[in-house]
Predict the structure.
Amino acid sequence: MSVVGSRARATSPGGTSRRHTNPPRGRTDTSGLLFVAPAVLLVGIFALYPLAISLFMSFMDWDGLTGVREFIGVANYQWAFTDDAALTSLRNFALFALITIPLQMAIGVAIAIGLRGSRSVGRVVRAAYFMPVVLAPVMVGMVFSQLMEASNGPINTALRAIGLGGIAPNWLGDPSIGLVSVALVNVWMWTGFSMAIYQAGLDSVPEEVIEAARVDGASGFALVRHMFLPLLRPSHFSLIILGTISSLKGFDLVYVLTRGGPADSSHLPTTYMLKVGFELFEQGRASAVAVLIFVIAMLITAVQLRVYRRRGER
């Protein structure tokens, strides 16, 4: 059989010949652009456009009620870095993250490892721990505002009943523990999410690897320390990133439980932004806080991903 020319033809199963041709030079296939256009449009409308408006308004002095706007440059950002309440909200974000993230991760991984291999009972327990995740934060806040009520709340009533009324705190009205109380509620609500992430990570660990470790003498705490925890490193970093961003943009629980009080002691950046914009009627300053929240979130995510990649290359 001879080959005519230098072009080879692809023969289909039916015996017909197919010739693969490229689009004419100078023409571009736009079908891919049409597929991604709806997603790009949605991102532009609901993400990029509001961000651009917030950035523009952060350079303005505007009360949000009148049409009078005055360009004042970076004065709103200077205020954000000197205002005591604004700085307190940033410190509260760091404290909130330091309380909630380690507790949620520690309890979540303990539950996931403890229930590993358990079938019927494990499913019921996991479902019970995960249930708070699907609840509305506003509803959770309303329930805990009643539970933590200082005078007649069930928690303090129980403490008084067992003779510990002297240490029954004003959970939500004491400036020194108001934010801590909100953080504990957040831990109760989101620990089930950490458990689910760790459970997924454990399910991806081959059973043969675990059996090999047991044959080598690893058991109990040694198995957890030297096998499970290192293999769950991607889950650790995912939860740290998600927990940090969640703490930065946290709003619901703080607003329902304390509204940032007393005396602005439990404000997070988002709740303080709401107060500045819609109670003090300083839309320019509120926009500056919003832009700072976005910038901080991006920086935190970039740093954490960089650390994760470096450790992964080792």
Notes: The chain has one domain: 75-313. Residues 1-12 have pLDDT under 50 and may be disordered.
